[in-house]
Amino acid sequence: MEKKYVRETRCFKISRVFPTDVNNHETLFGGKLMSYIDDIASISATKLCRVTAVTASTDSVDFLQPIRPTDSVSLESFVTWTGKSSIEVFVKVIREDLRSGERKIAATSFLTFVALDEQNKTILVPRIIPETEEEKKLHETAEHRTEMRKHRREESKKFADYLVTQYPWE
Length: 170
Description:
Order of helices and strands: EEHEEEEEHH
Number of domains: 1
InterPro entries: Cytosol_ACT, HOTDOG_ACOT, HotDog_dom_sf, Thioestr_dom
Protein name: Acyl-CoA thioesterase
CATH class: Alpha Beta
Strand content: 35-45%
CATH architecture: Roll
Domain HotDog ACOT-type: 7-119
Family: Belongs to the acyl coenzyme A hydrolase family.
Keywords: Hydrolase
Strand order of the largest sheet: 2-4-5-6-3
Radius of gyration: 18 Å
CATH superfamily: Hotdog Thioesterase
Shape: globular
Largest sheet: 5 strands, antiparallel
Number of strands: 7
């Protein structure tokens, strides 16, 4: 089985926060940040397998610090773990006050992608090799997140059986 280093999947994105990017609290709109997160995570996943990688789940987006128009927002993503065809990607969001230079972790997120071939069939993905302490810690804790993800998906499928698809006006 092919192997790749985490560093081969690492991606960065830095953006300025403009007035059109903020909500009524004068902080970065959460949906905009979630879009940035999914975008950069998909690039990391694709760099691992070099085929189409589709979002299977967003496990979490934990908003830890507000991001304001005086800040820049930096995202760093990389693959932390791989299954047979699944790829876990971690995204770290850092806000930097552009006046003081102070940086803080503003958000973290875990997403799962599935690698697909040209016929939209799942394919095997390379194993991932962590090197830094941060990468190793995320890799070591991935099995627990994978189990929680499987359980949550089973519960979501059961829950979906109770949901209606009829619109209220029908």
